Amino acid sequence: MKIGITGATGHLGRLVVEKLKERTASSNLVALVRDTQKARDLGIEARLFDYNKPDTLVESLKGINHLLLISGNEIGQRQAQHENVIKAAKEAGVEWIVYTSLLHADTSSLVLANEHLLTEEILKSSGVPFTILRNGWYTENYTASVPAALQNGALFGSAGEGKIASAARADYAEAAAVVLTSADQQNKVYELAGDYAYTLAELAEEISNQTGKVIPYKNLSESDYAKALIEAGLPEGLATAIASFDKGAANGDLYDDGKQLSTLIGRPTTSLTTVVEAALAG
User: Fold this and answer.
1) CATH number for the domain that contains residue 110
2) If both were cysteines, with which of 42, 181, 239, 275 could 23 make a disulfide (CB 3.0 to 4.6 Å apart)?
């Protein structure tokens, strides 16, 4: 039984490989990556795999029984990229595709949602058995802002009082590993989010408590937050996207209280306190 992991050298992919090694032999795992040299430290077979080169994908997928399709990171290109992979997987005889989608992709107002939803539809109509992991926000998406918050003396955002039910990236990786190595998972859709929801004001309070510094949360309008991010050096497109994600949080797009993630992994999701501690430790 061979399990293929696309994007295996990415932040999530590396953690998935690590979690899968705890549940199955390394010889059962195949890293599907754009640069096999970067996969050498994973300790598993690596094959060239580029979402943008459909003519090469079938060959790379031969012998793969189960495939984890980790969504690409090129916003605007992902529907076509994912479709390339799904078509190739079907042609190669892949028996099951597990896809990392977005929390509440069918109702979310996030700009990311449409590509995920379209991918889900392509997957469902492909005829290949599937499982959809609708991942919520990674807590690391927000704790990446800790150094800037300490430097600026405040945490900036545009999420208002929106509750964010995020979880550590490792929690989502473990869920993927559990699903890929468990029976009776096909044709399910999971809404995955953290057990503990917080506002950005509460994140700022956590940073303050751990550092002994007063780091307030400063809520800006979406446009003002985007401008601030641009002034901080971010590209305009990225700054606009990040500000829109906060607006989505204000609308409830990053909140879920179903605890399907902790149920899957058999433990509570990683606390905000723990992820902030890790961010401060560098």
Assistant:
1) 3.40.50.720
2) 181
